[in-house]
Design goal:
This protein has strands at 3-7, 10-13, 18-25, 34-39, 46-51, 58-60, 68-72, 80-86, 95-101, 117-118, 122-127. By secondary structure, the protein is mainly β. A hairpin with a 7-residue loop joins strand 7 and strand 8 (80-86).
């Protein structure tokens, strides 16, 4: 049973920062490309950022490039932690943010159907 749990969402003023965390556990992934997606009210879920399993390559949506940063922590006891540092937040960043994990792969992946495991999401609200 694989578990993916996001945390760190909340309410922040425009220009502020938040760091989202994602803990993936329950399986010893040999390689684990990860990604963050978001869904704003009334809109479809969209890609935000992705990271190659070794941390050597990342890619961002144009709307967050230069403001968001994705990273991972050293796995401990098969718990893999993924972070999304969000700076200079804007009201249009308001959304539910989802963490996604792929069980294998050597690249970065931006399509939702390329990921195998998803969290339930954490809500981020940016006030103007």
């Amino acid at each position: 049973q694989v578990s993916v749990v996001e945390s760190g969402g909340g309410l922040v003023q425009a220009g502020g920062s938040l760091r989202l965390s994602c803990a993936a556990s329950g399986r010893a992934f040999t390689t684990y490309p990860v990604g963050w997606f978001r869904q704003a009210p009334g809109k479809e879920r969209e890609f935000v950022a992705a990271l190659r399993w070794d941390g050597g390559k990342s890619i961002y949506a144009e709307s967050v490039e230069g403001r968001f940063s994705i990273s991972t922590d050293t796995a401990e006891n098969t718990v893999y932690t993924v972070y999304l540092q969000m700076d200079s937040l804007k009201p249009e960043d308001t959304a539910v943010y989802y963490c996604a994990v792929r069980s294998s792969g050597s690249n970065v992946y931006i399509a939702q159907n390329q990921y195998h495991y998803w969290g339930q999401g954490t809500r981020v609200t940016v006030s103007s």
